[in-house]
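User: Structure with cytidine-5'-monophosphate, tokens only please.
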Amino acid sequence: MAIEVFAPAKVNLTLHVTGQRADGYHLLDSVVMFADFGDHLRVTKAAKMSLRVTGPLAHGVPEDARNLCWRAAEAFGEPVAIELDKHLPHAAGIGGGSSDAAAVLRAMEQLFERPFGGNPLELGADIPVCLHATAARMAGIGEDITGLSLPAVHAVLVNPRVDVPTPAVFKALPTKDNPPMGAIPESEYLAWLALQRNDMEAAAAGLAPEIQITLDALAQMPKQCLTRMSGSGATCFALFETRALADHAAQMLATQYPNWWVQSATLT
Ligand code: C5P
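Assistant:
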């Protein structure tokens, strides 16, 4: 039996860094939503572990234990054959690794008819929210997930094709005790989002100047409501009131910047 699962792109609409623990991990306060665009996986019981990566963004994706999918299956404790159809850039701040790993855990729970017994956080700080896979507020170092009922938003996601290592961005933060988000309002969600922050954005742009170029290009898009970076970068996004506006921006950006990864999406 094979289980097919979808690993949506994860977008941090806000990412406030509110403190640092004694062990070095940072305290976060983040609104996370998931796209109708992502990777597709097929997981089958097997005598030994295997991973095959295909698809438009397969290049450079490891097919062994360096891949978080593989480590998720090992943590579950059963050998499986994983086919990963890769559409999301990895090391890009939109869950290219974490969402795949969470999808493997979901597939294995169905396949083996038992819950994952391990601690998802040990596979990565974004795994708990990626297991949730729909709008949530993420706090703590990533383990504290509260589901949110939010209106769908429309976005264009852009990655200028630079890798930004997360630990380097955390290290470059000038302040680690920034204010949290406060209550999420029941109406005027987009206007409220525009007043929030990604506290990693300036530090990431300091390490990879392409990020500021990306944010400036997004800011030029007609009728965008806000532009921001997701996660520790380098993927940035702009939000729009309609999907048609997001699709239009995606077409414009793909034409202007043929080397960038550009994708419109609806986030829920
Ligand atoms: O858990 P993940 O592999 O995504 O994290 C990569 C690195 O980012 C960690 O090794 C840690 O240095 C840093 N990190 C952090 N605080 C968090 C999450 C990650 O300092 N809440």
